[in-house]
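User: For documentation purposes, I need each entry recorded in a consistent format: the amino acid sequence on its own, followed directly by the corresponding structure tokens. There are two entries in this batch. Please keep commentary to a minimum and don't merge the entries.

Assistant: Recorded as requested. Entry 1:
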Amino acid sequence: MSNIYDRIFKEDIEPIIEVFATEVLHVNMGRTEEIKDKIQATWQREGDYLKKLIFDDPSKNCVLHIEFHVKDEDLSKWMLLTYGMIYHQFGVPVRQFVIYVGRKKKPRMPSGTQHDDCSHQFSIINLREFSHKMFLNSHIPELVVLAVLADFEGEPSEKIIREILGKLHQLRGDTANLGKYVQQLEILSKLRNLQPLTSKIITDMPFVYDLETDIRYKQGRRKGIQEGRQEGRQEGRKEGLEKAKIEFIEKLLLQGGFTVHQIVSLTGTTEALVKQIQEELEKQKSPAPTKNRKNGK
């Protein structure tokens, strides 16, 4: 299940990194440089962000290593190993951060290792310790989504989730990308045991998953208008909306990482329909059976 969260963080880190580094990590980003070598291919894990930071003053150059982590576990050996490999390759300091996004309010994971002849430290950042307002007030949707992992400061969960969805709608309007961020919010809310509530609110706020913006709906609607009849308009709308919903469900199933329950919550459809589409996709993947040929026929 953690790979679902990894994909979100890996996908969202680039748009937010400058603001996130400044506001959360208190790191001056300078100019970033891709690390394209065996370290990235061999050692970097799904949740890692690894970039070389270049400054006008070369003495300030370093490598930024960020790991988003769900589990409260000891990462000290892994972080020490990564530091050693990076330092050996580039000869510059490595600034390491573990961003804890798990369910525990106060993780117990150690922030380093200490032996007789070896000492190594890294920073652990717990998103629960940051106000949700810092993320919610951002103009970057990827940061707004992270508000669900921050400190609600005593505010009702329902209120915060609705504010997040409202801000996403304000930033993305009726664009196709709105659906992407709502998916992410629904998935990340599980880390705060808020997925059932989030799914319900998503269902209650129709603009969030307004599939009427889908091109197939627009085509159906235009077809109905051209027919010049109310019946035609309604039929076109229904046809386009159903096609959009089915294709969206197929996309989620093919992408993987989503349960039937999650897809039902995201699309507002029935479990029976999702399972039916799932079975049809499985049939398409399976090779067609070959008939036994007898007597050369």
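Entry 2:
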Amino acid sequence: MTRVAQARGTARHTGGFTLLELLVAVALMAILAVLSWRGLESVLRSRDNITGRSEQLRSLVVAFSQMDDDLRRTWPVRLMALQQPGISFARESDAEGYSLVLLREAGSVLGLQRVIYRLRGGVLERGFGPWSRAGVQGGVDLSLQSLTWQPILTDVESLEYRAWVPFRGWIAGGGPVAGTEPVSGLEVIVQHKGERLVRVFAVKD
């Protein structure tokens, strides 16, 4: 009887967990849960960062692609002997920075189109509209009433231009670029979210 009782007591002792063992298991599970949550939070933060960077890159690609297309369509304008050059710089007032003023082919639509790139309140805007000789004053058409404006890039801190004129070299935006030689290249310097981006465009086809 004594041996049977001892066997039963041993079986009863080894069949469950002690309170200390349960506390250790709960502590380990809590540590694993915290580590898993931190890992998941890091993954989500990285995903949001990548998504934001991708959206920023997409906006830059769209803005530069649009500008490249506009600049290339200014090249045939040099053959028309117009009073307004295909590429020039102007500003509405002394308080504003220089804007890029383009005169380009209108594509499938007959006639010419005015395009103006300007920086307003940290937003790079593109204005476009039909062009006519009647609106030209002093060589450049600066009337803005007939233009349709669209934002193409936000969070822009500064915007600078340099034009490449054959036999004259680089001319800073705002300088006299309307000479006998047409502008064949343009350098655009964008300060965007703390990063300095430089893009050089070839105007010729």
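Summary note for entry 2:
The two ends are 106 Å apart (CA to CA).
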